[in-house]
Write a structure and sequence with these properties.
By secondary structure, the chain is an all-alpha fold. Helices cover 55% and strands 2% of the residues. It has a two-stranded antiparallel sheet with strand order 1-2. A hairpin with a 2-residue loop joins strand 1 and strand 2. Helix 1 packs parallel to helix 2 and helix 3 crosses helix 4. It is flat, with a radius of gyration of 19 Å. The relative contact order is 0.09.
Length: 174
């Protein structure tokens, strides 16, 4: 589900900044309908650069007991504004992409998006549900939700290495 679909008419993309708020609300409602209907998976395909932009979707997913994964692009050029400007299909200029990259929050977690209290409450609910079902609780020995942190750490390291390489290549070009 993408907010961009709001601006697509007869196969043509026509962005109107004055309707952006309306478009995001339209997409949020579509997401809630999909979650309420128990569609699986529900994928939100938006340019979410900051935690607050994802919060309404994560909140809805938790409300309807969905597992949430935040997936970042895995390309060597994902932080290269020049390359992103050349590859994006909506004609977003390099300068706009540079601003988006400046505010981009990396390695977001559900806890960073929703706050620790929401995660603790959710963890407690999951433990109660698991115990009631006779299943092992979805928490590790430290009481933390199992989230695949090692994989996230490796991804963050890889991202940092790619960013360093891109910065170095940019210096070489300049």
């Amino acid at each position: 589900l993408s907010t961009d679909e709001f601006f697509t008419k007869n196969g043509s993309y026509e962005f109107d900044f004055s309707k952006l708020g309306e478009a995001h609300e339209w997409n949020r409602k579509r997401a809630e309908n999909a979650l309420e209907s128990q569609d699986n998976p529900v994928i939100i395909d938006n340019t979410n650069t900051q935690a607050w932009e994802m919060k309404c979707y994560v909140s809805l997913a938790l409300k309807y007991d969905y597992h949430v994964e935040i997936i970042e692009p895995d390309t060597p050029w994902k932080f290269n504004a020049k390359e992103l400007a050349q590859r994006n299909k909506h004609g977003v200029p390099k300068e706009t992409i540079e601003k988006m990259l400046e505010r981009y929050e990396r390695a977001l977690t559900i806890e960073r998006i929703m706050g620790p209290a929401a995660v603790t409450k959710r963890r407690d609910e999951l433990v109660r549900m698991a115990v009631a079902s006779g299943l092992p609780p979805p928490v590790g020995p430290d009481g933390q939700l199992r989230t695949g942190r090692r994989r996230k750490r490796r991804r963050r390291r890889k991202d940092r290495d790619q960013q360093k390489q891109l910065s170095k290549e940019g210096e070489d070009d300049g």
